[in-house]
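fyi for ur records
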Amino acid sequence: MNKLLEETLAKEKIARKYKKGQAGGNIKDFSLVLYFAGEEYNQELAQKNQINLIDFDRYAKAQPDLVEKEIRRIYNEPQNQQIIEAGEFPIIWFKNINKIGENQALEESLLPIFDSQQNTKLFNEEVDLAKFILIATTSTRDTAKLSKPLRSRLDCINVETAQTKQFFWDKTFWWWLVPSLLVNLILLILFLVRKGRNNQLKKK
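which gave:
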């Protein structure tokens, strides 16, 4: 498995177990959702067993209540409850969240799921996602494909290889710089030529 992915999951489990021990078994985890940008992480996670998958490539046009139904189903899954009782943390994988696109209602239903200050008491306080490790992935490294509210709830792990959102001047810098340098160079040449002519006239 991808080294960064494996190390991140291992560290997350250790940190959660420590917090759980400190909190006397009642953990309220305030970490952000682990976010991996890039198709390679989709492929790596697909090889891992015992992952609860919600793939937005399939559900991009789904109704917003889909998120609640899937979370409830995963939360009440007997196998997941057994893992939790054993002191471990099942994984919920939100795959291809960039595919949500313009389905604003679906995205809005996802925001409280990704908000660590809300997701411990979801759906009439019946669901506590602090008992799970939440992972989100995109099929692209371009994080600009995600909305600002969604990005603010994600902890981008592979930030060095992800393509973060660029502002206007970042995108157009070289387009402005090169012509500006050429114009300044031409003006400098014209100035030197004129100065040289003036010096010649003075000598005469």
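The radius of gyration is 26 Å. thats all i got for now
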